[in-house]
Design a protein that fits this description.
The chain has about 300 residues and is an alpha+beta fold. Among the domains are: about 120 residues, no CATH class; about 60 residues, no CATH class. The chain contains seven helices and eleven strands. The strands form three sheets. The chain has a six-stranded mixed beta sheet, covered by helices on one side. Strands 1-4-5 form a three-stranded antiparallel beta sheet. Strands 2-3 form a two-stranded antiparallel sheet.
């Protein structure tokens, strides 16, 4: 009887197991999770679809913060790369810097030659020299030169001397990149010279006017001085210089052909020997000769 009971139990279990089995085409694998015919689906997607509106908002907020943070990081990284690139270019430029040294060609000029003020002053000095030569000639011609003439000669003999060394600088520079470049000093010199040449015609006209006016003043002083003086002249003599062609220390002697017929020549011991128009020989000291005669040309 016990055996019949177990037999019924086994048959029941077997029927139950057979009822649970089927042979459909969408049979599931023997291993893993059992899925219904419509598929297992994505657990995370399913969970997301079941999320509340509040959790969806939180996800959107987190996504925005993530995007902002990512954008900030990208910008900072880009700035760092650009700074590094700029620094590298600067270092490269510095290491490739061109150096130059002065070349062999030089320029030399006298600065006062390019000064308008100096040019005007020189015009006055030239007038004084011309006036001095004229006064000196008259002084030597007169038998008794007046004191006013001597004073004027002394005044005009006070010339202004200009001193100064010439300016020297290199014309160009030879550079490490193989080029030859004009120096800054040379470029400034060319600009100054160009301006000087452009203004020179007007300056020359102004300087000529200064010269003429100054000389006219001197001539008026000479005329005034001689108007009240004894203008008896000495005897004029043409001078012929006789200079030996030999010797390094040789000196010239002068022969004089005078208007009174005398023929004279320099002698030793600072004397002048003459033969007058009558054939008489006379010896003068230099002072005596200059008191009676004057030379039309001075040597």
């Amino acid at each position: 009887m016990f055996y019949k009971h177990w037999k019924k139990l086994l048959l029941t279990i077997t029927a139950f197991l057979w009822a649970g089995c089927h042979y459909e085409d969408d049979a599931q694998p023997l291993y893993g999770v059992y899925c219904p015919p419509e598929g297992c689906g994505d657990p995370e997607l399913s969970s997301s679809s079941e999320a509340t509106p509040e959790s969806s908002s939180e996800v959107g907020s987190s996504s925005s913060e993530f995007n902002a943070l990512s954008s900030s990081n990208i910008q900072e990284s880009s700035s760092s790369v650009e700074a590094l690139s700029s620094s590298s270019q600067t270092a490269s430029s510095s290491s490739a810097k061109v150096t130059c040294v002065p070349g062999d060609s030089t320029i030399s000029y006298y600065a006062p030659s390019y000064s308008a003020d100096i040019a005007k002053m020189n015009a006055e000095e030239r007038a004084k020299r011309t006036g001095f030569n004229k006064v000196d000639s008259i002084h030597n011609e007169l038998l008794t030169p007046p004191q006013c003439l001597a004073d004027l000669r002394q005044q005009l003999n006070d010339f202004v001397a200009l001193y100064g060394a010439p300016v020297n600088f290199p014309k160009d520079s030879v550079c490490s990149d193989g080029t030859t470049r004009p120096t800054k000093e040379y470029q400034e010199y060319l600009q100054m010279k160009e301006e000087w040449e452009a203004n020179k015609p007007a300056l020359d006209a102004e300087c000529q006017k200064i010269y003429d006016e100054k000389l006219e003043v001197i001539q008026q002083k000479i005329k005034k001085c001689l108007s009240n003086s004894d203008t008896t002249k000495k005897i004029a003599c043409e001078i012929e210089a006789m200079c030996p062609v030999y010797g390094t220390n040789s000196t010239c002697s002068n022969n004089y052909n005078c208007e009174d017929g005398a023929e004279c020549w320099d002698s030793t011991n600072k004397t002048v020997r003459c033969t007058d128009g009558n054939g008489n020989e006379v010896t003068y000291t230099e002072e005596e000769f200059k008191a009676k005669y004057y030379g039309k040309r001075n040597y």
